[in-house]
Fold this sequence. Notes:
Chain A is α/β, with parallel strands linked by helices. Chain A is 40% helix and 24% strand. Chain A: This is DNA repair protein RAD51.
Amino acid sequence: MKQIRRVKGLDDDIRKSLELNGFNYCPDVIDRTDYQLMERLNLNKAEAKDLTLTISRSIVQSIRKMSALKLRDNIQQNTYTHLCSGLPDLDQQLRGGIPCGTVTEIVGPRSCGKSTMAFNLALRVFDRETDSEDGIVFIDTQRSFDAARVVEMSKSISNNFTEDHLQRISIFNIQSVQDLIGLLNDMEEVIVSKNIKLIIVDSINALRDDSEREDKETNPSNNAAGSHLLGQQAATLKKLAEDFSIPVIVTNTMTKRMDSGYSNNKQVGTEYQVPALGLLWSHSVNTRLILQDSTFGHSEQRKIKIDKSPICGVCYIPFEITPLGLFQISNEEMVG
Amino acid sequence: MNINDSDPLTDAYFLNTLDVNHTNKTKLIDAGLTTLKDFQGLTITSLSKEAEIPHKDAMDILNKIREMGGTKQSISAQPSIILSQQNKPTQQTYSQPVNMSSGLDMFEKPTKKLVTMCPELDVELLNGGIPCDSVTEICGVPGIGKTQLGMQLAVNVQMPEELGGCGGSAIYIDTEGSFMVDRVYDIAANFLHYLKNVTNDEESCVSNMSVDSMLSNIQYYRIYNYIEQISLVNVLLEQLRQAPRDEPPVKVIIIDSITFHFRYGFDVVEGGMAKRTKLLSNMSNQLSQIANEFQCAVIVMNQVTTRVENDVWYVAPALGQTWSHQSTNKLYLEYDAQRQQQVRVTKIKNGTTGSRHFTIVAAGFRGIPQQQVEEEQEGLEDQDVDGIGQGGQSVPNEFNKRPRI
């Protein structure tokens, strides 16, 4: 965060007073109300207001702002706006694939193809029509990365898959939310040096909360300890995605929720499946794809549901899992 | 009689220069109020108490003193009269002049309304649309269409005044990174197409509008933490005051969402939640001031959270009790028992509470007529609710019959 000594247009007396009172960074001022500033720095109300406004102006200067038209031009100049998923209908609905600069969540019950889909998307990075040495970060929380499977699946892509490609996948094994946030904060160098074009976290809900909070021990059902971390985790992931304009993909499992009271869409006492980690996390991802298993007659049918997307409505895409990966099946085939 | 002779403040003949009736003059003298200085700092109630005169008389006397002073020296328009120029402004005297208007003013100058493109909602519940003079909160579960509505409103605000629109521009403050400019492009193109269909006139106000001009009227801000969010709101008022006159005025400010950066980092530090409440209510005050001063709609998106009360689990707007009282209007986006999207108006100035159905189609946020909802729900009984191809296009809608651009 910006240091106060870099803020222009501050009165010398106030600058000195800020320094003496231990105000070094802009948030130190913004965090406080006018009355708190008046008390701490011995100012009158007008001076306190002026101080807040000057600091605010200085912060606002560095905020990214532009007209929507300019934003569109900027995006159109970018050659990497979407990561093609290889499923034509999904790509069409999402206007080209998994969007860059945002966080996409792949949710589904156990063994429904989440990791396969993640591998599939990783391989698509190598399938792009560029000569650049693109890299991938795979943050593995369950030791789910299966190199042999990736090599097997690589036959599906058109580019020749070599050991060099495998070398370009950087895998990080972590266990806790704190590790993840720490890792993400130090990620910039990796992204720049290895030309990273995709970040995958598989899976986000397997992370342990290492924080030692008293209320967590006394009240194990209190999940408040995790909630601030989830928000921070989401903000860090989003910032990384946007700063480098790359897609971030996280996988998550479903959990059962027993609804005992009023909810807007379910009746009392029904049990149903929701993505794990709760509503706060649900709000935090930009796009959510749910992998569903359902039985139609005798045959099992898998579908991808676009559950949340800023660009398209809810829709379903049938797919199948083969040794070569994840493939779309056409609607006619499914009916037949 | 001669004020110029000596220090006007201690002029002993001061009372004689005042046009006050004899009874009151005696009472003033009895109370020891003879010179201009004696009157310094007196208010209507304190003067009436000290001189034992009615409030009305006290007000007249003070007004006369102020009028007199007005000819001799500059008097500031403070509630308590300051009779001397030497008085330095102290902490107490720092207050902004308060704008006063009568009920009649408000009646004669109706506020503009921002249409949502859901006619059932606009006409039947909102009395024309979202009011352009207050803060409106839009809550909803993830993925229901809050951002879609936000993008739609950023476009709708540009409907020309000749057609009953706001004819303004939009500020979109994106805290979540969900603003998709390609989607806004589609919404704008469809909206423009709709406007051109309505007017049918080549010479009309719509003819010089283009999708590009509509996009350039949406100012986009990307916010990465709550410090930036607060700072931006702090300077917004100043920025709007300095906005160039020749550009369309800002008529809607959308914050999508106000919640995201306030849901982490606060519950770990001591006193964090109290700080959060303070910061939020401060921000909300500034937003309603902006809404009022510039007659623009301020839309804040809020997330939902789960609450447990007596072992009953339910969904409620995030950010807690204090926040829930801050906004003037409240819309709640939710699914009804049939999994239909509906918007529930829970608090509205000059309107009716209730709920109406909506859907998100390729063209944007649209309403579904009540009759159609009933028909569909009958039809649903023999259909798979989670059927394939439930995307926007499949929902029959009057707007949807038009070709997509």
